[in-house]
Design goal:
Blueprint (H helix, E strand, L loop, with lengths): L3 E5 L3 H13 L3 E5 L2 H10 L6 E5 L7 H9 L9 E5 L5 H7 L3 E4 L4 H11 L7
Parallel strand pairs: 1-2, 1-3, 3-4, 4-5
Length: 126
């Protein structure tokens, strides 16, 4: 079974590009355009993602609200969250919130895949 990676990003082009790249690399991406939809999918699905890639500044519910909800859900609290932001928060803030890592926008495909493979291994050890 392909590892599921949840991509929460309100910029449609970026979200679709990330999902396309992940799909090409053998992952099963699920993209949502804002925090409210992300939480609906995360809490409503029986599938636990292997990783959440999360924009912080979004409409509906922002990234911090998503983090709080995910970390408050026993089934999801151990899922690593990597925030994607043009201005990443301070390391102490990230650590206090239980954030596993950051991707500074704009980022390259290589940077994306470096972070993804740090947290998620494909079946067969790839």
């Amino acid at each position: 079974m392909k590892p599921v990676i949840h991509v929460v990003e309100d910029q449609d082009d970026l979200r679709l590009s990330i999902c396309d790249e992940l799909r090409r690399r053998g992952y099963a991406p699920v993209g949502t355009p804002h925090g409210e939809k992300a939480l609906s999918v995360l809490h409503g699905s029986g599938t636990k993602p292997a990783l959440i890639l999360l924009d912080l500044l979004m409409p509906a519910k922002d990234g911090w609200e998503v983090v709080a909800s995910v970390k408050g859900e026993p089934r999801l609290r151990d899922v690593p969250i990597v925030v994607m932001s043009a201005i990443p928060p301070r390391a102490t803030t990230l650590q206090a919130q239980g954030i596993a890592g950051t991707l500074t926008k704009p980022f390259t495909v290589e940077e994306l895949m470096f972070v993804v493979t740090r947290f998620v291994k494909l079946p067969g050890g790839k």
